[in-house]
Amino acid sequence: MTPTLVRQHSSHAGAAPHVDLRARARDWSEIQERMLVPLYEAVYERLDVGGDTRMLGLGCGSGLALLMAAARGAAVTGVDSRSPELLALARRRLATGTPEEPEAYEGPRSPGTCGTRARAGAPRIIDGPPENAADPTAPAFTLVTAFEPTGCLAGDAEGLGALLARATPLAARGAAVVLAGWGPPERCATTSVLRVAAKLSDPLRAAGSWRPALRDDLEEVAQRAGLRPDGSGRVACPFGYADTGSAVRGLLSTGLFDAAVEATDPEQVDKELTEALHPHQRPDGTVWMPNVFRYLIARVP
Length: 301
Hints:
Radius of gyration: 18 Å
CATH class: Alpha Beta
Keywords: Methyltransferase, Transferase
GO biological process, one term: methylation
Largest sheet: 7 strands, mixed
CATH topology: Rossmann fold
Protein name: SAM-dependent methyltransferase
Structural class: alpha/beta
Number of strands: 9
Strand order of the largest sheet: 3-2-1-4-5-9-6
Strand content: 15-25%
GO molecular function, one term: methyltransferase activity
Number of helices: 10
Order of helices and strands: HHEHEHEEHEHHEEHHHEE
Distance between the termini: 30 Å
Number of domains: 1
Region (Disordered): 95-118
C-alpha cells in the first residue's frame, strides 16, 4: 500500500512462503486498497477524467481505480501479470459496477457513484504485459496510470521504467502518464510501522526490501522512460482500520513485508507489526495513521 504502501500486488509473484494468495488478494481489495481512494480522486479531478478518456491502468490489481474512472464515464483497460487472484476480483468488480463491502472502519470510502456509472465501452482486464492491451480498432490511450506507489522497494523504480517503456507506445502523443509514491517520511505516520519491514529484512539485504521514499523517485522514473514532467501534487491518504488485526492483514497484503517474512518467520513479523501499530491505536480500538502521497503527471512526447 502498491503503497510505501504498496507494492500492492508484488505480494503474488514471488510472494513470501506459506501465503494464502486468495486471502491476501481479498485483504488487499477489502481492507487496504481503498486507502488510496483520495489519490485516485485527486488525479481524476485534476485531469478531468470523463467520457473522452481512454485509460490504461498498469498493475491494475483488483481494479478499484479502474472502477472509479469508469464511474466518471472513461473507457478503461487494466493490465497486470502478477496476480490471477486480484484480476479475478477486478473482473467481478467491473462486471457488477460495485466494490466489495469493506470491513467497518473510520477511513476513506469508495465513492457511492460506482454502482451507477455511465459506460463508455466494456472494461477490459488483461492478464499479461501492456502490449497485450493494443487494439488496432480503437483510438490510442489518452491516460496511463501507474498508481502502485513506486520507490518503496529496492529495485522497483527500474521495473516500473521498463513497464512504462512497453506501455507508452500505446498512448497518444501528449497523453498523461501518472506515477504515484509515498510523500516525505516525516509526513507519513505509517513510516514507523514500515520500518519493521526494513529492520527484519536487513539480514537478507535482498531486492524487494522496504526503503523510505526519496524526493525525486517519481521524476527519475519519468526521465528514464523519456516522459516530460507536467505537474505534481500531494494528497492526504490516511490509513484507517477497524482494529489492529485488520491493520496487520491490510499491511501484509501490500507485499512490503514479504522479505521480512523470508528473513524471519510470519509469527515474528505479526508480533512486531502489532507492536509498531500500538501507538496508532485509538481508545475505541481503531487504528489511524495520517499519510501523504505524491503523484507526478508526465506527458508522452
